[in-house]
Design brief:
The chain contains eleven helices and eight strands. By secondary structure, it is of the alpha/beta class. Strands 1-4-3-2-5-6-8-7 form an eight-stranded mixed sheet, sandwiched between helices. The longest helix has 18 residues. InterPro entries: Methyltransf_11 (IPR013216), SAM-dependent_MTases_sf (IPR029063). It comes from Nocardioides aquaticus.
Length: 285
């Protein structure tokens, strides 16, 4: 079994103190709960879908930006590609290393900020992000980094939850229960809006192909089952409940809102939800 390797984060210029604090909160949020369980039990099909769309192969050097626990990194490495998986949250990288070791996959794991990637220009043939970079607060800064590290003629492939889809509606449901985002931060589901992503990437890319698809999720028989799973495991939901503290009325209201959201989305037998996402692939000009 091959061993994973780890790369140290390249030093960057000192950040604004408010931005540093924001990134620290993001890092802590994604360490809450058990995101690797969400990735493995609910959205495991997304990484392979993105890797196929990007046409990753054994001759490619690939970076997975905001890789989490490796939803896209591991299937990319399984093609024989040389893969770097970067994320802001060390806990998720540790989970990814363990999964890679079990699968016998060799890839590099690094702690890295999607808005300041520790790599020279044009370092990669393929730049991936699977429901990851969308959570970087400054969308244009993150998009500029995706383009910067992709070589001319290379591919940028992104999979993001849409604003109108189930996860977009989840964030809208959470909004009244969490602090307002700081000035300059943009809502994550905007990355699921094709026009928004095209504007972020601009004329630095060409041959853009975008499609909206749905992930069928049959993991939850009831809205209450979804709520309880996400309350315990999905960082943004866990953080929302933590922020409510002992306010039993607001906790109860959020409980009801999340269960209702999922119940409305469940259809068929077995009960299934369709979680909409945007899949966008472009070539670096």
């Amino acid at each position: 079994m091959s061993q994973t390797t780890e790369q140290q984060h390249r030093p960057t210029d000192p950040a604004d103190p408010a931005d540093t604090a924001l990134k620290a909160r993001h890092r802590a949020m994604w360490a809450l709960g058990d995101y690797p369980a969400v990735a493995a039990e609910v959205i495991s099909a997304l990484g392979p879908r993105l890797v196929r769309a990007a046409g990753v192969g054994p001759d490619d050097r690939v970076i997975d930006v905001a890789a989490g626990s490796g939803n896209a990194s591991l299937p990319a490495a399984a093609t024989g590609a040389t893969v770097v998986a970067g994320d802001l949250t060390p806990d998720l990288l540790s989970a990814g290393r363990r999964a890679a070791a079990v699968a016998g996959l060799d890839l590099t794991w690094e702690e890295a900020d999607a808005e300041a990637l520790p790599h020279p220009d044009a370092s990669f043939d393929v730049v991936l992000s699977c429901v990851g970079v969308m959570f970087a607060p400054h969308h244009q800064v993150a998009a500029d980094e995706l383009v910067r590290v992709c070589r001319p003629g290379g591919r940028i492939a992104l999979l993001s939850w849409t604003p109108a889809g189930f996860i977009g509606r989840l964030f809208a449901t959470l909004r009244p229960y969490v602090p307002a985002p700081p000035p300059g931060a943009s809502p994550p589901p905007l990355w699921g809006d094709e026009a928004h992503v095209r504007a972020l990437l601009g004329d630095r890319v060409e041959h853009v192909e975008a499609v909206t698809e749905e992930l069928p999720v049959d993991r939850f028989a009831t809205g209450a089952a979804f709520r309880d799973f996400f309350r315990q495991r999905y960082g943004p939901t866990v953080a929302a409940y933590h922020g409510l503290g002992d306010d039993t009325d607001r906790v109860r209201a959020l409980d009801e809102a999340l269960a209702e959201l999922a119940d409305e989305a469940l259809t068929g037998d077995p009960a299934t939800m369709g979680w909409e996402y945007l899949l966008l692939v472009a070539r670096r000009a």
